[in-house]
Each structure stands twice: as structure tokens, then as C-alpha cells.
Write a structure and sequence with these properties.
Elements (H helix, E strand, L loop, with lengths): L3 E5 L3 H11 L4 E5 L2 H11 L4 E5 L7 H11 L4 E6 L4 H11 L3 E4 L4 H43 L1 H21 L4 H10 L9 H8 L6 H8 L1 H10 L5 H8 L22 H17 L4 H10 L6 H13 L4 E8 L14 E2 L5 E3 L7 H13 L6 E8 L2
Parallel strand pairs: 1-2, 1-3, 3-4, 4-5
Antiparallel strand pairs: 6-9, 7-8
Length: 385
């Protein structure tokens, strides 16, 4: 597949010349202004390389390429200029992240080589990004599988939290919404360091010692330390660290950070985690929001008000029902509507848990050894009639 190139120049004869020179070598679009170029970026992209003239009315090349960098950071940016003075060059590099300068008039040979270099750089960047994404996804999958084994209840909570956050994602339109979703999946990862006795006492509401209480309070700090060593997860680690920090500055961690200084992802995570906690206690969403609104200083009220308004305008068109299946029919991705127990009464997986490949293998082992109680109940989602 040919790489897509976008040329932007207010001189039509220059664009026509490049079209003749490069016909058959690249998939090429042209625009006569920065505004038109941005429109094509939205409708015709992604482009491997964008070439822009420097001197254009309304929006010059630096301004245009700066916007390209914001909207399509992977795209390689080249600049055509007839006055490559030092000031222009410095500004273009700093603001437009220009990969290469080309002087007017630009020969066919020079332009072709610049485009090939740009395309190669684009493909290298994309390949590296794809490799990093796959590595990151694999690491996260292992972490969540470990969490599902070590703390089934916490894992079930994290899945409910992620689902809640995803349902509100269109409201925020964040480019980094994946960070808060990931923080939701890993918010309790610090629990893997707790002694099993402390974990059991916490789960069964047995009185804890002072030392054990401190362990539970510091779970976000421990989780943050575990996560921040993974590339690209620095922001996720910070969201996890401040997940229990209240808007007025109270709560953990015990520092001076408060209000808008608290990471926005943490402020959102606090709202959604408290929402699903209140709903799990039997409150309707409306009553849960009323309760949250009454707790002054706990939440970012601007975000909370937006969440409440969005919830009113976007009632779910899907209802949740319970379906009964056999273990043989259970598959990866199913959501449990009730606990899965062995025939001798041991709980193997908690209600609300999503079946992963690792959990499926664990259940298979139990089924072979002692057997599992059937039927197994899973969540089935159907449209409202």
C-alpha cells in the first residue's frame, strides 16, 4: 500500500508541478491553504508525510504544521521555504516539530529523497509504537490476571469500575482516556503485597490491627510504585497514587496536594469508584448522586455535575439479565452473574468477574479435580423492549 502524502501550498502551479513529478510514486492529496489542509487531515488521513509551504496567507507553515503535530503526532512534517533564516528554522523546529527543510525551488530528486526519508521515519515510528503497545498490553494482561487470582473481589470491583468509566467516556472525549481505564483495572494492584491473613480479615470485615490498617491505607502508594516502573505508565501510577485523595486535600497521600492539583484522572476515579460502591449497597443511581452531592469537599464538583448531567441525558438502552450455562459453554469474556463454586463448596470465582484465559484454565483444573457446581450463571445484555 502506497504511503499517503499531503502537500499544502497557496501557489497552484507548484502543487501541479509536484503532482506531475510524483505521479504513480505516492498517494498524494493537495490543499491551497492551512485551513484546507487541516480539513483534509481530518477527512483523508492518516498521512505519512505532510509538506507545507512557509509563506501562506491566514495561516503560515509554522502555524499549520503545529496544528498537524497536535492532531496527528505520528505524521512526519516537511517545510518548503524560500527564506530559511535561523529564526524561522528555530521556530519551525520548536513549534512545528519539522523533520526537514526544503528550499524553493526544490528539485524532483531532492523532493523524492525527502519524501522517502519521511515515509521511512513514519513507518519506523509506527512500528515502534505498535511493538510498544503490544508489549504494554501483554504486561497489563499479566498484571490483571495475577490480580484476579490474588484478589478476586478487588478484581471484580475493578472490572465494574472500568465498565462504569467506559460508559461515561464519550462525555470527556479525552485522548488519554485509556489511562484512567487502566488505572481502574489496576487500582487495587497493591493488595498483592498484603499478607494472606490481612487480606482475609479485610474481606470478611474482621477487626484489623493498627499495622494492618496502615497497610490498607498505603495500598495506592504501593500500587503506584509497582506501576510506574512500566514504560508509558507514569501518569497511570500517579492516578492510582491519588485515587483516595479528597478534593479538599484530606485523605491519602498525606501531603499538601488538593483541588485541581490532584490529577484529573484521580478526581474522576474517586467519583466513579464511590458511585459503584453506593450502587453495590442497593442505592439507585439517582440516590447515589444525591448522597455524593451532599458530601462537601469530597469531590471535584465541576466534574461531578457533568457526570450527573450526562447520566440523566444518556439512560442505558440495555438491560442486564441472567443466563444459565454449563461449564463446557463458559468462555473467555463471559461476565459472571453469581459465584462459581466447586462441588465441595469452595468459591473459585466471584460474581461480576470477567472470565480470562488464566481463570478459565484454573476453573478447568478444579473441574477435573473436584468438579464445579452447575449451572453457571452469566450476565446477558439485551436491548430494552
Amino acid at each position: 500500500m502506497k504511503a499517503k502524502i499531503l502537500f499544502v501550498d497557496d501557489e497552484q502551479n507548484i502543487l501541479a508541478a509536484f503532482k506531475r513529478q510524483l505521479r504513480g510514486r505516492v498517494d498524494m492529496d493537495t490543499a491551497n491553504s492551512g485551513r484546507e489542509g487541516l480539513e483534509l487531515l481530518e477527512s483523508g488521513g492518516p498521512y505519512a508525510v505532510v509538506v507545507s509551504d512557509m509563506r501562506m496567507p491566514e495561516m503560515d507553515g509554522i502555524q499549520f504544521l503545529s496544528k498537524v503535530q497536535e492532531k496527528s503526532p505520528d505524521t512526519i512534517r516537511l517545510m518548503l521555504t524560500g527564506n530559511a533564516d535561523q529564526g524561522t528554522a528555530v521556530k519551525a523546529v520548536n513549534e512545528g516539530r519539522v523533520f526537514q527543510f526544503l528550499n524553493k525551488p526544490c528539485s524532483e530528486k531532492v523532493m523524492n529523497q525527502a519524501l522517502q526519508d519521511g515515509i521511512q521515519q513514519y513507518r519506523l515510528a509506527r512500528a515502534e509504537k505498535e511493538l510498544l503497545a503490544k508489549t504494554l498490553n501483554g504486561s497489563i494482561r499479566i498484571l490483571t490476571d495475577i490480580l484476579s487470582m490474588a484478589d478476586p473481589e478487588g478484581f471484580t470491583q475493578s472490572q465494574s469500575l472500568k465498565k462504569c468509566i467506559k460508559s461515561f467516556a464519550p462525555m470527556f472525549k479525552d485522548t488519554n482516556s485509556w489511562e484512567i481505564e487502566l488505572a481502574a483495572m489496576l487500582f487495587s494492584i497493591g493488595k498483592v503485597t498484603l499478607p494472606s491473613e490481612t487480606m482475609t480479615k479485610s474481606r470478611e470485615k474482621i477487626a484489623l490491627t493498627g499495622v494492618e490498617k496502615d497497610m490498607l491505607v498505603r495500598i495506592p502508594e504501593i500500587g503506584s510504585r509497582l506501576i510506574k516502573s512500566i514504560p508509558r505508565l507514569g501518569n497511570v501510577a500517579r492516578i492510582i497514587l491519588y485515587q483516595n485523595k479528597l478534593f479538599d486535600g484530606s485523605g491519602f497521600p498525606r501531603d499538601s496536594v488538593s483541588g485541581s492539583e490532584i490529577p484529573e484522572g484521580s478526581r474522576k476515579l474517586k467519583i466513579f469508584s464511590d458511585l459503584i460502591h453506593l450502587e453495590s449497597k442497593g442505592l439507585s443511581r439517582r440516590l447515589a448522586f444525591e448522597k455524593m452531592k451532599s458530601l462537601k469537599g469530597r469531590y471535584d464538583e465541576v466534574i461531578l455535575d457533568r457526570v450527573i448531567a450526562y447520566s440523566k441525558d444518556n439512560d442505558e438502552n440495555v438491560v442486564e439479565e441472567k443466563g444459565a450455562i454449563t461449564f463446557a459453554e463458559l468462555k473467555e469474556g463471559n461476565l459472571l452473574a453469581s459465584d462459581i463454586e466447586s462441588t465441595d463448596g469452595m468459591r473459585i470465582a466471584a460474581a461480576g468477574c470477567e472470565i480470562s484465559q488464566l481463570l478459565l484454565e484454573k476453573l478447568e483444573n478444579f473441574n477435573c479435580m473436584v468438579g464445579l457446581k452447575e449451572p453457571i450463571y452469566i450476565k446477558v445484555f439485551v436491548e430494552k423492549r
